[in-house]
Design a protein that fits this description.
Layout: E1 3-11, H1 17-33, E2 36-45, H2 57-69, E3 74-77, H3 83-93, E4 96-99, H4 100-111, H5 115-129, H6 139-143, H7 154-158, H8 165-192, E5 197-203, H9 209-217, E6 234-239, E7 245-250, H10 260-265, H11 267-274, E8 278-284, H12 290-304, E9 311-316, E10 331-333, H13 342-354, E11 357-363, H14 368-377, E12 379-385, E13 390-396
Parallel strand pairs: 1-2, 1-3, 3-4, 5-7, 5-8, 8-9, 9-10
Antiparallel strand pairs: 6-7, 11-13, 12-13
Helix pairs in contact: 1-4, 4-5, 5-8
The structure holds guanosine-5'-triphosphate and magnesium ion.
The site of guanosine-5'-triphosphate has 25 residues, from helix 9.
Length: 410
């Protein structure tokens, strides 16, 4: 069954109205991803929140009328509500109120495919539930296979209200232990990859990370015009000439107001981001809210404590826009879907990772093995055979320089 809902947001500062509108537009996308039909969306301007209901009483009355007309009782808030605000709205207005976090959790629940993703979502759900046990809705029903509908099946869920906090805490511990086990297994894989440089795709959800991952690595991960299509992290190799390799990871997309416990639950998935030598920040250049999205991604990177990892700004979907004349130093316009400018992107990645430099060397004739090695590792530009030895000009990566340190010409 497709549910119908009214979306609401409260704007506390008129100056931020445009940002609130963008946030509501995103809430519409989230609702649609969760298979909810959005009937209307409303923003209330208020000086401060109503502690009891978050929004104003009159405003909620109006919403109740709208919902009655569409024969629905689902109200989705863009702002985060406290458990008691939710209870008050439900009791006094007879409406089902859910907030942005609950909606995101619902989408995560629907999209989690692997065991690890499922456990991570479960952990986030349990942590979200803990202070809200009285309001436990369809969770446990969804576990039994009625997945999909936001805010439905509450009757069954209500039977579980008796589950006390202790049980939930015990369950949290259990899920954490299971996650640790998986973490240990993936840690071994990670160690094996340690020899290679690691590049990770980050960016707002739906920016095209998975599409780019597929294009660069000839993989086949799920691409969808949906928010949070990817919840896991996948890695694959990219090969460069001279036999250099790197590991590219695709991972979960970011979004504004990404709930804190969600970030914490997805720590394992985010490990690839944390370990990266270079981040590719993928931006949807055709999205009118891209500035806002870039800001939000930067916020999340800071929250995870990795804003200092070098980054390339990759403006994707540029098949949909006019190419700009000016591009910043570590910025590139591409189309992952149409495979435009991908070779240049690879070059930029290579330069960033390996910081190649043109250097002059001198080898005497007894050092042929080193000359061979240089040919293998570097791009030889010029070679000059003299009586006493060989002069070579070559572009060498920083990391390979150590082999030839004493052959550098002064
Ligand atoms: N026009 C155009 N569409 C693109 C391009 N790259 C990706 N898309 C579309 O954008 C949508 C999202 O792509 P994904 O690759 O799933 O995006 P993602 O960043 O992995 O999204 P999440 O995993 O949900 O965070 C899909 O409908 C893609 O077909 C592009 O270069 N041009
Ligand atoms: Mg994806």
């Amino acid at each position: 069954m497709i549910e119908k809902a009214v979306l609401v947001g409260v704007c506390l500062n008129k100056k931020n109205y445009a940002e609130k509108e963008a946030s509501i537009a995103e809430l519409v996308r989230l609702a649609e991803t969760a298979k909810v039909k959005v009937c209307t969306k409303l923003i209330q301007n208020r000086e401060k929140i109503d502690p009891k209901y978050f929004a104003g009483k009159g405003f909620l009355q109006k919403i109740k009328m709208i919902l009655q007309n569409i024969e629905s009782d689902l109200l989705i808030f863009d702002n985060d509500l406290t458990p008691s605000q939710v209870r008050n709205i439900e009791r006094d207005f007879k409406l089902k109120a859910i907030d942005r976090t609950e909606l995101i959790l619902n989408i995560f629940h629907q999209h989690a495919k692997t065991k690890e993703a499922k456990l991570q979502v479960r952990l986030a759900e349990l942590q979200y539930q803990l202070p809200r046990l009285k309001k436990l809705w369809s969770h446990l029903d969804r576990e039994k296979g009625t997945a999909g509908n936001v805010g439905t099946a509450r009757g069954m869920g209500e039977k579980q209200i008796e589950i006390d906090k202790r049980l939930v805490r015990r369950e949290i511990e259990k899920v954490k232990k299971e996650l640790e086990k998986i973490d240990k297994q993936t840690a071994t894989q990670r160690k094996q990859r340690k020899r290679f440089k690691k590049v990770c795709l980050v960016g707002y959800t739906n920016a095209g990370k998975s599409t780019l991952f597929n294009s660069l690595t000839n993989s086949d991960v799920l691409v969808e015009d949906k928010l949070f299509a990817t919840l896991d992290s996948t890695a694959a190799e990219i090969k460069f000439d001279k036999g250099r390799k790197l590991i590219l990871s695709d991972t979960i997309g970011f979004i504004s107001h990404l709930p804190h416990h969600l970030v914490a639950s997805f720590r394992a998935t985010l490990q690839d981001v944390i370990d990266a030598d270079l981040l590719l920040h993928i931006v949807d250049s055709a999205d009118e809210n891209q500035r806002f999205q870039i800001k939000e991604v930067k916020k999340v990177l800071k929250e995870i404590g990795i804003e200092a990892i070098p980054q390339i700004m990759v403006n994707n979907k540029s098949d949909l826009i006019d190419f700009p004349k000016k591009v910043a130093k570590n910025q590139i316009f591409i189309s992952a879907a149409k495979k435009i400018n991908l070779e240049n992107l690879k070059k930029l990645i290579d330069e960033n990772l390996h910081q190649a430099e043109e250097i002059e060397f001198f080898f005497d004739y007894s050092q042929q093995h080193l000359v061979n090695k240089l040919h293998k590792l570097a791009k030889v530009r010029q070679e000059n055979y003299r009586n006493d030895g060989i002069e070579i000009k070559a572009i060498v990566n920083q990391e390979d320089l150590r082999y030839f340190e004493s052959n550098k010409k002064k």
